[in-house]
């Protein structure tokens, strides 16, 4: 069995002390021109929680702390590629966006209030769903590899 068509991505749901969500507009892919959350692929040799913090920093310049897992989006692209994304809840260490914008990937980054997000049809439907239904997270009790231990308290599947 081959696994070369299995993708694992990560998504950073970052909420600051004021309850604002960190959103960005990417300059490529199917999300071009839409507000979404920082996301990307897990690289060889890194864990998913390391990858989400790397992607958050690369796309926004903000460092964060993983608070837990809030979901999994999974699907199949063109009946061939298994596309999987883990959604992490992240607490920002600071709120200052330090990347130069626009750049080759990102058009804009902003902290946005949930009510404003829900009124915006240029925001990913997944984010609307998360705002409306955000529940308890799965708390990471260990981030050491191999065999990270999880405290499963609640789990959502998003497709």
Describe the protein.
With 159 residues, the protein is α+β, with helices and mostly antiparallel strands. Helices cover 17% and strands 37% of the residues. It has three helices and ten strands, in the order ββββαβββααβββ. It has helices at 48-60, 114-118, 125-133; strands at 6-14, 21-26, 35-36, 39-41, 64-77, 81-92, 106-112, 139-140, 150-151, 157-158. The strands form three sheets. The chain has a five-stranded mixed sheet, with helices on one face. A three-stranded antiparallel sheet has the order 3-2-7. A two-stranded antiparallel sheet has the order 8-9. It is globular and about 45 Å long. The two termini are 25 Å apart.
Key phrases:
159 residues; alpha+beta; five-stranded mixed sheet; three-stranded antiparallel sheet; 37% strand
Weakly predicted, low-confidence segments: 136-159
Biggest sheet descriptor: 5 strands, mixed
Q: How many separate helices?
A: 3
Total number of strands: 10
**How much is the radius of gyration in Å?**
15 Å
Quote the distance from N terminus to C terminus. Answer: 25 Å
The run of helices and strands is EEEEHEEEHHEEE
Q: Residue share in helices?
A: 10-25%
Average predicted confidence as pLDDT: 84
**Structural shape:** globular
Q: Helix/strand-derived class? A: alpha+beta
How much of the sequence is in beta strands?
35-45%
Widest β-sheet, arrangement of strands = 4-1-6-5-10
What's the topology here?
Blueprint: E1 6-14, E2 21-26, E3 35-36, E4 39-41, H1 48-60, E5 64-77, E6 81-92, E7 106-112, H2 114-118, H3 125-133, E8 139-140, E9 150-151, E10 157-158
